Amino acid sequence: MKHPDDRKTVVLVVDDAIDSIRMINDALEEAGMTVLVALEGNQALTISQNITPDVVLMDALMPNMDGFETCRRLKENPAFADIPIIFMTGLSDTEHVVMGLNAGGVDYVTKPIDTTELLARMAVHLANARMTRSARCALDTAGQNLFAVDREGNLLWGTPQVCRCLPPPDHEDFQGVREQLEDWLGHRPDPGHSLPIRLLDTPRSIEYLALVDGQEYLLRLKTPQNQNSASAALRERFDLTLRESDVLLWIANGKTNREIGQILEMSPRTVNKHLEQVFRKMNVENRTAAAANAIRVLATL
Question: Which of 117, 139, 161 is at the close of a domain?
C-alpha cells in the first residue's frame, strides 16, 4: 500500500534551451520524479497558478523575463514560500550568484549540469523544505495561526490556514492590509498588542508576537471570540467547572498566573489550584500542553 509520502516529487524546470531540458528531464524521470517544463518565465508563472511543484530548477538567463525576475515573481505567491528554487547558470561569478540568492533562490549549479550533483543538492533542499512545511502545518494543527511580514507589511511566510484567510498578495485587498500593517508596525507595538482588521469581510485581529532577527515581524491571526461562549466550549469539552474553564481560557491566551489572578480577581495561588484540577481533567502535565489542547478547541469556534 502506498503512503501519502510515497507520491512522486514534482519538479518545475524553467529553461529555454531544449537540449538542456531533455538531459535534465531524463535524469529526473530516471530518479522517479515528475517533470513540468516551462520554456520562459511567463509560462512558469502560468503553471504556478494551478500547480505548486516541490522544487524549481531555474535557468538564470532567458529572453523576455530572466530567471531572477521569474524567481521574484514566483516568491510573491505564498504557496511558493517554502519551495526551493535552484538556479542553473553558466555564470558562476559572484554578481550573478548574489542576484540569484537575493531573488529568492536557495542554491545554484553551473552549466553544463552534473546531474549527480544536481540530484544531491535537490535532495538536501527538498528535505529542508518538507521539514519547514511540516512545522507550519503542526502550528496550524495546534491552532497557532502564525505568519510573518517585513517592515513594509509584505508577507514573508504564513501557516497554511493563514494563507487561506489572507487575500492573495497581488490582490488590491491585500494592499490595504499591507498598508495597515506597515502603519501599525511603524508605531512599534508591544508584544501582545492586537490590530483589529477585516479580512475577506470577516472581522479578525492580528496579534504582534516578536521581531525576529531585526527584520521579520512574527504575527498571529485571530478570530475575535465571545469570552462566554469560548469558556463554555472549554467547560463542555473537558468537563470543567466555570472557574476552571475561565482559567484555562486565559492560559490559552498566554496569560501568567499573576495576570489571570488580576483578571479573575483571585490570588495566583488560587489560580494554581484551579490549574492542578484542569491538568488532571485534561490528562496533561503542564500549562503548555493544556494551552495547546484548548487552542485546538477554540480554533473550531
Answer: 139
